[in-house]
Every structure is written in C-alpha cells, then in structure tokens.
C-alpha cells in the first residue's frame, strides 16, 4: 500500500483551494507538476507549515495572483501548503483548510467601462455624452473557494453579498485607463 500525505492547493485563477493526496515516497517531485514550475520557492506559512510556490511566477501577463498575509510580495501561480517547517520531509497540514484559507486573497485585474457624462473634449477629439470615455482598472480581492471531498463549501463568509460590497469598497485598487485614442497614463487612485 502506498503512503500518502495531504497537501492543500490554491489556484488563484479559479480561486479554488482544495486538499490533494501526494505519494510520500516521491518527495517534492509531484509539487513541480502541481504548481507547473521549474523552480520551487519555499515560503514559511507559520512555525508548523510551509508553502511551495513558483520561484519564477511573477512575470508579465499575469491574470491572477495571491496575496499571502504577512508576505511582502504577491505570489503568482499555484500555491501548495504542507505541514512541516521546510527543513524536513513534509507532512499533512495540521491546520484546517478553512483556517488556512483565511490567510489568502486571490486577486485579479478587472476592467470597468467609464462613459462620458457630458460632451468632453480630449486630445483624441470630442467624446459625446454616453460614449465610452475609457476603462477603469481595479484589482479585485476575494477569499478562496473551498472544495472538500468534491463539494464546494463557503465557510469563510456567511453573507456573501455583504462581503462583495465590502470587497468593492475596501479591497480594490483602482486606476483610470482611457480608451487607446485618448493616450492618458493609468493612474492608481491616491497618486498625484
């Protein structure tokens, strides 16, 4: 009989956070395939757990990434959480999937259309009221969707609509991006 440990895998593209079984005698080799990388980076989750992430994940063209509470930079690509401090062979996590998920925010850029409210003159010409004046970019941050034993569970937020409103108010970064003919730079709100 083959021994297996459980690991938790977070995919920021789908926001799915789920347990997977890993064959013990293969060591960390399966992590390369799960994450889809050439180089693994070890990130300390806490004193009893370790994250394995793609060392080269932060590249141009990101469509999603993860914010890990207390880590100084975003993490791109899939994340694998295991038990152990990273110096010894890993074990199954001692933390629950639900408790682990509270430390992550899955992020993705979202473009919202901005329509002219009145006739406007821009370097690209006149924009008629109601016409598309540009695009507003924001970074949407959401909690992971937990999947356990083939079923989706939603334990983190009891009132999903309240969290969605809060998410849009407090957890988005915004910038203004004009339609290409307008040639204005994208500015993050709060910058001068």
What does this structure look like?
With 192 residues, the protein is mostly beta strands. The protein folds into two domains: 4-106, no CATH class; 107-188, no CATH class. It has helices spanning 29-35, 97-101, 160-170, and strands at 4-11, 16-23, 40-46, 49-54, 65-68, 79-83, 104-115, 120-122, 125-127, 132-142, 145-148, 151-153, 173-178, 187-188. The longest helix has 11 residues, at 160-170. The chain starts with a strand and ends with a strand.
SSE topology:
Blueprint lengths: L3 E8 L4 E8 L5 H7 L4 E7 L2 E6 L10 E4 L10 E5 L13 H5 L2 E12 L4 E3 L2 E3 L4 E11 L2 E4 L2 E3 L6 H11 L2 E6 L8 E2 L4
Sheet-strand content, in percent, reads: 35-45%
Summed over residues and divided by their number, the pLDDT gives a mean of 79
The coarse silhouette is elongated
Which percent range fits the helix content? 10-25%
Strand order of the largest sheet: 3-4-6-1-2-11-12
Specify the number of helices.
3
Give the H and E element order. EEHEEEEHEEEEEEHEE
Number of strands: 14
* Biggest beta sheet attributes: 7 strands, mixed
Structural class: mainly beta
Are there runs of 5+ residues with pLDDT below 50, and where?
Answer: 150-192
N-to-C CA distance: 63 Å
Rg over CA atoms, rounded to whole Å, is 21 Å
What is the domain tally? 2
